[in-house]
Specification:
By secondary structure, this protein is of the alpha+beta class. Helix content is 39%, strand content 19%.
Amino acid sequence: MTVKRQDPALARLWGATAPEPPAHPPSVPPRTRVRIVEGPWLLLTRAFHSREPAAWDTESHLEAELLWSSAGNVTLEADGQLWLVPPSLGIWIPAGLPHRVRADSGVVTYATFIAPDRAGIDWSSVTGVSMTAALRALLLHDLAHTGEKAPRLRLQRVAIDLIEPVPASSLHIPMPAAPDLREVARRIIDAPADDRTTAQWAAELGSSSRTLMRRFAADTGLSLTQWRILVRIRAAMVDIAAGEPVGSVAQRLGYANPSTFIELFRHVTGLTPAAYFRSVTPAG
């Protein structure tokens, strides 16, 4: 089971399924590492502590990767899409797929590399995974303790068995390919509450509103306004997952009425914030 690139909730919000943007090659050649998980092991987890905002080089590797975090904001860029990695979710990255990861300061980012030939999971698409308490505990225990071969392999097998796709996928955002549009996109991602209008963004680019809307839709399949809604919902997910009240998050993102924000959240994800996080954090 894999996550589809176009969430049906987007069709409910905007009336029709937007065309998938083309897969854009990374701006720099991806690094392909040598094998990370040596036999007979099924997986290997590494932890990366970001004291300052961090961005890793575009890379791919022989193993699949489960990307997850302790708290805070981590994003994955792969195959022309931007993926949210809130603490309640992990993101499965197929083996060989070029990708780039960014993390805010103070975040511990975990990369669990998984040998597809030995683990029995070889999903071909980027996929959301529920990071249950049990799965986290097993991966952290494996990271901290090498242990004897047979018990450790049993532990790793149980961890693999707990890797399941979530019914409500993590939110992915199509990224524009044109450099000037990507710069606008990055600035919106860094400041989701920015309330500049399409006309104001167009003026910064020396363009007209109509031209900006046409170019942005051609690159992403969404208007700039629709795209900004996705960015705001994505930003809200991180804070809500950390326990911040929905009303406070909505207000900080520029929504004076929390019910307006909740309705937008429901249109984008198909669920209210409370129901969404129940769906991606099952007991255990």
